[in-house]
């Protein structure tokens, strides 16, 4: 699938229009179960015309006026974490939790939702991976350890939880939202006016997040962070879901993706690319599909290799030919996600912004322009069969030099991020995420 093309983020995102607003497709009526892969349902938009009120307040601070809008960097901030919960992510989840105080230490009012990259895949039995499909969770990783979510290939990774968390469960206090003034227990963490929704006595917001951010390593290995993001945000706008009301019009929205893999947000109409249609497989003689399908089905690299000038996102039909029809692309086009974020931006008030920040497979210094992402085949043919491309970054492993930490280039995520403005992508191949996490709350 690596044929000649000129990479231009602007061109890759051009021509995304032609359809109605994605928000127009939402329904406020009861939808199907959250494990339905077709979620969310289509339906009539909410045309009540009611204007949203200011952001929610904690039940214990009734009468206090929450921060609404103001100069850039002073309005509230809604943070959606989309966390890779697969077998290679234990250390990264622990590091994310360890460094989370860099976000909580901001003076801005916070609302933090957490989901995973697992939306299901034909290669992942749902009964084993239990895909979240954008559902948010506040549960402690200690409970997840007991349920076996920190076991992968018969290896125990529970240290990713126990090294940072000692609390189970974390009790959440009921709170109102601007859409639902009656206090309810919400599937997110919140701090408004200096008061959090943590009901567990003596537990800080930092401690609660340290227990919630490690999401385990038993998730589907065909990660779909963009589709998971989309489902989570649509749930936040669907009155039939617990996540309804998470988004505040006066608040900045920052989507934070943490993954070491490429995006594999596929169209279920073409799920045979993981089973019987081997056109995107790196090695068709293999007995099963690998993550290489996700790279090959989502990019178009320039040049014959082994090093490529660029590998922009591309839309391929199930026959391996380029397609201009978004519904015929085997992976959902990046425009699907850029349009959603653009529509949410259009709904913002008071100068609030929509941003995407990622901790992913880019080299250290990428966010400052001190390094560039290089696309090249992996020198190990077997590894290239697994991933379809060499690593975007590498972190040496002092304990086992033969097995360094690696992460693959996040092409599709980069192009969605570029649609929002300057890129905010940080390398996952480092042993401290403090600087990246601190950026979440910065204007």
A few lines on this structure:
The protein is of the alpha/beta class and 443 residues long. The protein has helices at residues 9-13, 90-98, 101-104, 126-129, 141-146, 159-162, 205-212, 225-235, 292-296, 335-346, 381-387, 411-418, 434-440, and strands at 77-83, 110-116, 151-152, 155-156, 189-192, 195-196, 252-258, 307-308, 354-360, 375-376, 393-395, 405-407, 425-427.
Keywords:
alpha/beta, 13 helices, globular, disordered N terminus, VWA domain-containing protein
Element layout with pairings:
Blueprint: H1 9-13, E1 77-83, H2 90-98, H3 101-104, E2 110-116, H4 126-129, H5 141-146, E3 151-152, E4 155-156, H6 159-162, E5 189-192, E6 195-196, H7 205-212, H8 225-235, E7 252-258, H9 292-296, E8 307-308, H10 335-346, E9 354-360, E10 375-376, H11 381-387, E11 393-395, E12 405-407, H12 411-418, E13 425-427, H13 434-440
Parallel strand pairs: 1-2, 1-7, 7-9, 9-13
Antiparallel strand pairs: 2-5, 3-4, 5-6, 8-10, 11-12
Helix pairs in contact: 2-7
Biased composition (Pro residues): 34-43
Region (Disordered): 24-75
Protein name: VWA domain-containing protein
> What would the principal axes of the Cα set say about the shape?
globular
Radius of gyration: 21 Å
The residue fraction in helices comes out at 10-25%
- The average pLDDT score comes to 86
Task: Count all strands and give the number.
Answer: 13
Portion in beta strands: 5-15%
Region (Disordered): 24-75
Biased composition (Low complexity): 53-63
Protein name: VWA domain-containing protein
Organism: Nannocystis radixulma
């Amino acid at each position: 699938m690596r044929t000649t093309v000129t990479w231009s983020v602007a061109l890759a995102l051009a021509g995304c229009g032609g359809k109605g607003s994605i928000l127009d497709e939402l329904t406020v009526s009861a939808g199907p179960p959250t494990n339905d892969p077709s979620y969310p349902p289509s339906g009539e938009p909410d045309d009540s015309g009611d204007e949203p009120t200011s952001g929610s307040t904690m039940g214990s601070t009734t009468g206090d006026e929450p921060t609404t809008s103001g100069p850039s960097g002073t309005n509230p901030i809604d943070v959606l974490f989309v966390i890779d919960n697969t077998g290679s992510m234990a250390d990264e989840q622990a590091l994310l939790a360890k460094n989370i105080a860099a976000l909580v230490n901001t003076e801005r009012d916070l609302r933090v939702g957490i989901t995973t990259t697992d939306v299901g895949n034909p290669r992942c039995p749902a009964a084993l991976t239990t895909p979240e499909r954008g559902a948010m969770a506040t549960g402690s990783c200690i409970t997840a350890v007991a349920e076996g979510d920190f076991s992968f290939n018969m290896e125990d990774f529970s240290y990713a939880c126990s090294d940072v968390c000692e609390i189970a469960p974390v009790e959440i206090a009921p709170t109102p939202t601007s859409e639902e003034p009656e206090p309810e227990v919400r599937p997110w963490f919140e701090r408004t006016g200096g008061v959090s929704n943590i009901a567990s006595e003596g537990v800080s917001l930092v401690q609660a997040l340290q227990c919630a951010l490690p999401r385990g390593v038993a998730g589907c290995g065909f990660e779909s962070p963009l589709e998971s993001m989309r489902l989570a945000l649509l749930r936040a706008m669907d009155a039939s879901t617990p996540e309804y009301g998470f988004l505040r019009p006066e608040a900045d929205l920052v989507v934070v993706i943490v993954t070491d893999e490429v995006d594999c947000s596929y169209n279920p109409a073409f799920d045979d690319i993981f089973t019987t249609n081997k056109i995107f497989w790196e090695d068709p003689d293999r007995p099963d599909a690998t993550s290489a399908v996700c790279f090959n089905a989502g990019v178009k690299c320039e040049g014959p290799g082994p090093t490529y000038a660029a590998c922009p996102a591309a839309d391929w039909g199930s026959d391996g030919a380029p397609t201009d029809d978004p519904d015929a692309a085997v992976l959902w086009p990046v425009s699907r996600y850029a349009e959603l974020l653009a529509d949410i931006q259009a709904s913002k008030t008071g100068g609030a912004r929509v941003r995407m920040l990622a901790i992913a497979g880019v080299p250290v210094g990428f966010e400052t322009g001190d390094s560039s992402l290089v696309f090249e085949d992996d020198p190990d043919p077997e590894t290239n069969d697994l991933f379809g491309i060499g690593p975007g970054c590498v972190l040496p492993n002092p304990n086992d030099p033969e097995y360094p930490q690696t992460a693959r280039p996040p092409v599709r995520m980069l192009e969605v991020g570029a649609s929002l403005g300057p890129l905010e992508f940080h390398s996952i191949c480092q042993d401290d995420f403090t600087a990246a996490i601190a950026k979440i709350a910065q204007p």
